[in-house]
UniProtKB/TrEMBL annotation:
InterPro entries: Prenyltransferase_related, UbiA_prenyltransferase, UbiA_sf. One of its GO terms (molecular function) is transferase activity, transferring alkyl or aryl (other than methyl) groups. It comes from viral metagenome. This is UbiA prenyltransferase family protein. One of its GO terms (cellular component) is membrane. The chain crosses the membrane at residues 41-61, 73-94, 115-136, 142-160, 169-188, 260-282, 294-315. Keywords: Membrane, Transmembrane, Transmembrane helix. The keyword GTP-binding does not apply. It is a multi-pass membrane protein.
Amino acid sequence: MTIGPNHNIERNIRHSYTVHKHQPTIHFNEKQRQLPSLIQLIRPVNIVPTFMLSFMGGWIVQPTPILLLEKQFWVSALITQLIMSGSMVVNDIYDIDVDRKNNPNRPLPSGKVKLVTATVLTGILFTSAFILGSVYFPNTKLFYSVFASILMLILYTPFFKRICFVKNLICGFIVSGSIAFSGFAMGGQNNLKLLSSIIRLVCASSIHMELLNDIRDYDGDKLSNIFTVPVLFGKPAAGIMSKTILYIGVFDAIMVSLSYPLLITYGIAIACSPMLTNIIVCELYDFSKESVKIAVNGTTVSLFLNMIIFCYAATLNL
C-alpha cells in the first residue's frame, strides 16, 4: 500500500485556516452594517433643532460670540443632546411591539439592531450625561435637573405617556427645559425676564402641538385605548384647551416685550400670527389631518422666528 498525501486532510486544514482568518472581518462588517441603524435610533434629524434651543438659552444670558468659547455652554449642549438621543432609543425600546405593526422598518422591529444593543446604547447615552453633569455641575440644581430628566424620560413611555394630558405637559417641559438648562449653565442672571418668557412660550407651544397631534391621532388612539384629551373629552374640547394654552404663552411673550423697543413687540406679534391663525383654520376644517399638519408646521416656523427675535432683544441690554 502506497502512503501518499491525504487530500481530505489538506482541504480541511485550508478550510479551517480560511474561516479563522476571515472571522474578524465578518464580525467587523456586521458592526459596520449596524451603525446606520444605531444612528437612526437616536433620530439625528433632531440634533440641529435641539442645539438651536441650547444655543438660544445660552445666547440670551450671554449674547456675545464669546459664548461659543465657553466650556460650560458646550457641556450643557452636549448633555442635552445625550439625554434627547437616549429618550429616542428608550421610546423605541418600549414601543417595539407597536412598531412591529405600524413601523416594521424601524431598526428594532426589523431586527437590524438587537434589543440588547439598544438597551446598552441607552445606558451609554444616559450615563454619559449623568457623569458630565456630576463633573461640571456638582451638587447644583442643574445636576439634579439632569438626574430628574433622565428618570422622567425612562418612565415616560411605560407610565406617563398613557396618562391623559400628563404626557403633553412632560413633552412641553422637556423641550423648553433645553433652553433653561443652557441658560442657567451660563449663570442665568442676565436677561432672566427674557429667558423665562421664551421658556414659557416654547413650553406652551410644545403642549399646543402635542395636543394637536393627539387630535390628529384620534382614531388610532381610540382603537388602542390610549386615553388622550381628545379621546376622553372630544376634539373640540382638546382644540379649545390647545388654543387657550397657546394664547397664554403668546400673551405672556408680548407683555414681556413691552419693556423693549416697539420693534420687538411688533416682531413677536407678527411671528406668532401663523400659529394663532392656523388653530382657527383647524377648527373650521374640523381638525382634519391636513389642517393639523399645517398648524403644527406653522407653529414650528413661528417658534423659529421668535427665537431670532428674542436673541436680538437680548443684545439690546448689552
